[in-house]
Automatic annotation (TrEMBL):
Keywords: Lipid biosynthesis, Lipid metabolism, Membrane, Phospholipid biosynthesis, Phospholipid metabolism, Transferase, Transmembrane, Transmembrane helix. It is found in: Membrane. Its main location: membrane. GO terms for cellular component: membrane. The chain crosses the membrane at residues 12-30, 37-55, 75-104, 124-146, 152-177. Pfam families: CDP-OH_P_transf. This is Unannotated protein. One of its GO terms (molecular function) is CDP-diacylglycerol-glycerol-3-phosphate 3-phosphatidyltransferase activity.
Amino acid sequence: MSIWQQLGTVPNLLSLLRLALVPVFLVLILNGRNLEAIIVLAIASITDYLDGYFARKLKQETRLGQLLDPAADRLYIFATLIGLAIVGYIPLWLTIVVIARDLILLFTYPILASRGYGPLPVHYLGKAGTFALLYSFPLLLIAAAFPDISLFVLPVAWAFALWGIGLYWWAGFVYLAQVRSVVKSSSADSARLGD
């Protein structure tokens, strides 16, 4: 299937919509339009669910989709963290801790590519961490948009955020171990071929 055919699949169109909503979401947060930002985040969450559902249901799982879906998740995480930090809803350290993990993993891509591998499959711990983080963001926004209920919402939001960070980093260490294993096995294969 060509790249253009892959782009035209229902799941990938939903992922592209999600990507297009990232700057809209960030602008809304930065302008204090929390309720609208929550709505955009809800739409993005629905498209995230639907793209996976339709990919399986319509048998339209593509390599492009495997790249677009996590890319859209990462962009939402980054945009939300940066936006929430700028407006003062979360401390800057939270943004740094989450983004630092992805920056560290970014350096693994050239290493994998040099051995003929693309990005490794997403681990369930990474999915769980991403889910927890993406669940905490609307709750943080709800607490900001509706201060009367923030006493009840903020503890839940922070619980999801902290669990998300822990799982996110745990998945990062698992990914680094997988990269190390790939490097070792490709080095061993090269050594055997050289004999």
